[in-house]
Amino acid sequence: MALENDCCAAFFNTTGVNGRPVTLGSRSRTVRAAASVSAIEGFGHRPRHRVTAVGPCAETARTFLHCRDPRARHRRPSPFANTLTRLPNRHCLLEQLEAIVATAGPANHIGLCFLDLDEFKLINDRYGHRAGDSVLAEVGRRLDATLTSSAVTPARIGGDEFVALLAPPCDDGKAHATAEPMLATLSDPIPVGPTDLLVLSGSIGAVVAPVAGANAEKLLNDADVGLYRAKAAGRVTWVLHRDDHDRATE
User: Fold this and answer.
1) Residue 125 annotated among the catalytic residues of the structure
2) Are 140 and 162 in contact (CB under 8 A)?
3) How does pLDDT run across 46-69, given as a tens digit for each residue?
4) Beta bridge partners of 117
5) Range of the domain at 185
6) Among candidate residues 101, 131, 152, the one where a domain is terminated
7) Which helix (H) or strand (E) holds 247?
8) Same domain membership, residue 185 and residue 135
9) What is the CATH number of the domain that holds 210?
């Protein structure tokens, strides 16, 4: 079945033989599941489609789409969505990662960009947690509006930590093309308190790794290593961590 939009590229991005192959967008990628499509209201700049999958990735696809469907916010809370930012939460992100690892070809690469806001604690200390929550909600909105590729999924995994999942095929260039806009989106002032405007900054640890042998927790840990080095390098930067090298970009 041809799909007008590769809206599930983050899940369905390898060639599979189980189930009826589904063509995704102009890249003609196939998946290990049958699928049907019906229109729904989009979230931010996200594709305006609902995909119902049948096969190994079906439950994860339904989980992700519940996180991204704005109408779900008016129903009971989802255990997979962060209620403050309306982005997928850590649990949803880990499930999506594991689904990609289980279905992508071993020669493919997967990536993460792990963003931590610089000195965010000072905002809570000075303005209070309600103001801090407002800032986090705005950061989530900006990330969702900025990371519009269907192969890049932003999530909030806790506190002031956000992660962008880069579906295969992924390389250093894709990490660069994701990390730089993530940092740039923080530069516009955010209103805080009755009169103040804050310009945020952040640090990012990125990782690009082969799908073969990958697991979600290791990818997050490797990205966290890059984040630690970005902080040590003076913040407002990102570091790409790989097993064979680290690279800092300012």
Assistant:
1) no
2) yes
3) 443 334 343 444 444 444 454 545
4) 202
5) 106-249
6) 101
7) strand 246-249
8) yes
9) 3.30.70.270
